[in-house]
């Protein structure tokens, strides 16, 4: 179902689509295992997409993307409504867990994702004909 939602048409032959499906699927199941509510799950998936778009479309460095994550997470746990950010439906403990997850899922593999999006590759066509 997720591949349909992401509109992946060449999943069997596209390494990029397969990697992205794995990225989003792993994130989705991680959040489900943490028993996130529907709103939290939606916010988490938006965060995954936001950080990946920063890398793919805006060519952000790891440091710049970490700064963007900090801005997105700012205000979590604050009671003052003016200071709370878009992700204020997460607790401080959940925010820490999200940062830990992003560290192992995206940030530790950042160079690989940069290569995926920004390095030209030859596509090998394999056929059974």
UniProtKB/TrEMBL annotation:
Family matches, as InterPro entries: CLAMP (IPR032727)
Write down the superkingdom of origin.
Eukaryota
Instruction: List residues traversing the bilayer.
Output: none
Provide an example Pfam family for this protein: CLAMP
- What protein is this chain from? CBCO1 protein
> Which organism does this sequence originate in?
Smutsornis africanus (Double-banded courser)
């Amino acid at each position: 179902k997720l591949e349909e939602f992401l509109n992946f048409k060449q999943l069997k032959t596209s390494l990029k689509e397969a990697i992205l499906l794995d990225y989003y699927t792993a994130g989705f199941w991680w959040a489900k295992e943490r028993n996130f509510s529907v709103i939290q799950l939606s916010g988490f998936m938006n965060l995954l997409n936001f950080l990946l778009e920063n890398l793919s479309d805006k060519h952000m460095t790891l440091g710049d993307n970490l700064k963007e994550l900090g801005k997105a997470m700012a205000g979590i746990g604050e009671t003052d409504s003016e200071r709370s950010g878009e992700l204020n439906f997460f607790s401080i403990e959940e925010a820490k867990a999200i940062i830990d997850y992003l560290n192992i899922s995206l940030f530790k593999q950042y160079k690989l994702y940069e290569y995926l999006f920004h390095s030209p590759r030859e596509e090998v066509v394999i056929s059974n004909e």
